[in-house]
Write a structure and sequence with these properties.
Elements (H helix, E strand, L loop, with lengths): L6 E6 L2 H12 L2 E4 L4 E5 L4 E6 L10 E4 L3 H10 L3 E9 L2 E7 L5 E6 L2
Parallel strand pairs: 1-4, 5-8
Antiparallel strand pairs: 2-3, 3-4, 6-7, 7-8
Length: about 110
């Protein structure tokens, strides 16, 4: 189908650390395309990480759904991610924000 989000690409300062983080926390599957690029699939959407010397500036906020926010927070911390906005409620659910090892900020939400 045309005119829908099809792929998401993030910068990453360390491809190997980025892959470990997303594999450990979300069980994403990766395909490497050389040392400076890896693509991922999470079962619904695909994307990639490209090697950059630094990550900066705010980009789109990617929001990941999870049934158990507390369990995901613990996985993020164990994988050396940082919670940058604690869990808060909004109409329809609650969410928190985190950064990965390269400094990309994402969010996890739940309706539970």
């Amino acid at each position: 189908m045309s005119l829908r989000i099809d792929y998401i690409e993030f910068p990453a300062t360390d491809i190997a650390a980025t892959k470990r983080f997303y594999q450990d926390v979300f069980a994403w599957v990766f395909t490497d395309y050389g040392p400076d690029y890896t693509s991922f699939a999470d079962g619904r959407i695909a994307g990639g990480f490209t090697k950059e010397t630094q990550v900066g500036g705010l980009g789109p906020l990617i929001v990941i759904y999870a049934e158990d926010l507390a369990a995901v927070q613990e996985k993020i911390k164990a994988a050396n991610g940082k919670i940058v906005k604690p869990t808060f409620e909004f109409p329809g659910g609650k969410r928190f924000h985190f950064t990965d090892p390269s400094g990309n900020e994402l969010s996890v939400w739940s309706d539970k």
